[in-house]
Amino acid sequence: MTPPEPEDNDILRAENIVKRFGALTALDGVTLHLRKGEVLGLIGDNGAGKSTLIKIITGYHRPDSGTLSIEGQDVQLKSVSQARGLGIETVFQDLALVNELSVFHNMFLNSEVTFKPLPFLNNREMKKRTRKYLEDMGVKIQSIDVEVAQLSGGQRQAIAVARSVYSDAKILLLDEPLAAMGAKEGAMILDLVQRLKEKREVSIILIAHNYAQVLEVCDRVNLLQHGKIAYDEKASSTSIEELTELVVAEYRKARETA
């Protein structure tokens, strides 16, 4: 497919990204763009290159060729910390939460509020901010003092998302946030993404396998196949049936050439 033309409101643009691991070509000229305030659904079979692309955008991997730009400025990401400094945050499936710590301590993990210049934790201030953050995002937790190990999977996911958003994220990458969740917990996360979408304060790339969930909250859908973006369409202009047929057609083609 023809790569989309750059737009003035693109907050992120990856162009002709190539990444190889020895003889394996994981990404073969990916061009992807994310608009400000947009929720982009990224779908594709296992091994299509989704995780590799996300790790390049977050600074974990460096591309062999191609360019990345953030808010119109070309960048060469050399580390995850550099990407975070530019406002790129990721919530992976493992969430990076500490089970033994409270909700509010997890919200400020590695960015604790202290009584400067003394190194003592300002728990009162962290609790106050945590309550406000969660209230603003519509996240309901029985108590911010409980250990996160006591929360449901959906609540844990919400805490991880909230922490990323309130660390001044401009771009939020959600890697399979709905995996292994029941309908009720999945709905909770979809509602959270919808609220973030309505605020238009953060741009989101949502990786998911459930096409119904993708179409429910995303503005646009990209299908990654064989290390390339094979499909780029508005969510309102496609359907579960069309997306399914694209993937099934790929399976048919693979079987015919096997």
Question: Main attributes?
Answer:
globular, 6-stranded mixed beta sheet, 4-stranded antiparallel beta sheet, 258 residues, alpha/beta
Describe the structure.
With 258 residues, this protein is α/β, with parallel strands linked by helices. Helices cover 34% and strands 25% of the residues. It is built from eight helices and ten strands. The protein has helices at 50-57, 80-85, 103-107, 123-136, 153-165, 183-199, 211-217, 240-257; strands at 10-21, 24-35, 39-43, 65-70, 73-75, 88-91, 171-175, 203-207, 220-225, 228-234. The strands form two sheets. A six-stranded mixed β-sheet has the order 6-7-8-3-9-10, with helices on both faces. Strands 2-1-4-5 form a four-stranded antiparallel β-sheet, with helices on one face. α5 (153-165) runs parallel beside α6. The mean pLDDT is 89.
Describe the structure concisely.
With 258 residues, the protein is of the alpha/beta class.
Mean pLDDT: 89
How much of the sequence lies in strands comes to: 25-35%
Please outline the major beta sheet. Answer: 6 strands, mixed
Order of helices and strands: EEEHEEHEHHHEHEHEEH
Residue windows where pLDDT falls under 50 for at least 5 positions: none
Shape, principal axes of CA atoms: globular
Q: Give me the secondary-structure category.
A: alpha/beta
What strand order characterises the main sheet? 6-7-8-3-9-10
- In whole angstroms, the N-to-C terminal distance is 24 Å
Number of strands: 10
Please give the count of helices: 8
The helicity comes to 25-40%
Radius of gyration: 19 Å
